[in-house]
Design brief:
Blueprint lengths: L1 H18 L8 H9 L1 E6 L2 E2 L3 E3 L5 E2 L1 H18 L4 E6 L5 H6 L5 E2 L13 E10 L1 E6 L14 E5 L3 H9 L4 E5 L2 H9 L5 E5 H10 L6 E4 L6 E8 L3 H17 L1 H10 L11 H9 L4
Parallel strand pairs: 1-5, 1-6, 9-10, 9-11
Antiparallel strand pairs: 2-3, 3-4, 7-13, 8-11, 8-12
Helix pairs in contact: 3-8, 3-9
């Protein structure tokens, strides 16, 4: 009888364990946002024009505008109340830990949507598409990934760019830095020969450098980098709302107005959208 009771208890515990939902999967983020009236996002401080601190000490950028003007209204409509967006700094090594520790509700910066990362987080629709290149001093012999054998190459810790360099060019001397300003400082001081990151970020860095003409962005894309906003794994209701906000922006044209502000001819970093990229973005929403 005792053995039967023990077996029954074990069976009950096994069933209960199977029913336990991972943290975040019960839409805890929405409950917290509704209760506090605040959505906390993790974003960058030195990645113009996506998210950075400007000369007026304001935290601004394309990714931040997408949250404020597209995601926030969708969230307010769902919750039936006004909410405030608060920002915390995130970097490639800290992004996922910030989400899993509940320190932030959403990562909105320059995070590439990859199959590996999808095992840990939920991604929104893609809101930007770019590829990896190199930033070098003008006149550098480095013109593409084929030229970096034996060279000192800077990358950010935890970035897809660093991973690809390790896999594709193991003979390069890869040196990883905690963030973009640190990597660029090493390049400016001659501690490395090139800095690899997503092309658009390198163009932004060049544009904001004290002497932009001293630098060149070189090489064809050697990776595909579709940016998405990230949420805790299983936070499907929040993902649905974030996607709805982005979809509405793409359908109404508001997204393209925000893009023009930051990447148009008079934007912070002129980077015209190609027809192929526009088609890629619209295909996500059936257009």
């Amino acid at each position: 009888m005792m053995m039967k009771s023990v077996l029954s208890l074990c069976l009950l515990l096994a069933v209960a364990a199977a029913l336990i939902v991972p943290a975040g999967a019960q839409d805890g983020s929405l409950d917290k946002i509704k209760r506090t009236g605040v959505m906390t996002i993790g974003t960058r401080t030195g990645s113009p024009p996506f998210a950075y601190i400007n000369k007026s000490n304001e935290w601004v950028g394309f990714s931040i505008d997408l949250v404020e003007q597209l995601v926030k209204p969708a969230l307010e409509k769902e919750l039936g109340k006004a909410i405030k967006v608060e920002k915390k700094e995130s970097t490639p090594p800290t992004r996922i830990p910030l989400l899993t520790s509940n320190a932030v509700d959403l990562i909105a910066g320059t995070m590439t949507d990859t199959p590996e990362r999808r095992q840990s987080v939920e991604f929104s629709l893609t809101f930007f598409y770019t590829g990896a290149q190199f930033l070098v001093k003008k006149g550098s012999p480095i013109k593409s990934i084929n030229d970096i054998g034996g060279k000192r190459i800077a990358a950010q810790q935890g970035s897809t760019n660093a991973k690809i360099i390790r896999e594709k060019k193991p003979d390069a001397q890869l040196r990883e830095f905690p963030d973009q300003p640190a990597a660029f400082q090493a390049l400016a001081q001659g501690q490395v020969d090139a800095y690899t990151n997503d092309g658009i970020q390198l163009w932004g860095l060049k544009a904001k450098a004290p002497k932009p003409d001293d630098w060149e962005v070189v090489g064809d894309f050697f990776s595909e980098e579709p940016y998405g906003m990230a949420m805790r794994k299983g936070d499907l209701k929040l993902k649905q709302i974030v996607d709805a906000g982005l979809k509405n922006g793409l359908e109404s044209g508001k997204y393209f107005e925000i893009y023009e502000k930051w990447f148009g001819a008079k934007g912070e970093v002129p980077y015209p959208m190609t027809p192929q990229v526009k088609a890629y973005l619209l295909k996500q929403i059936g257009k």
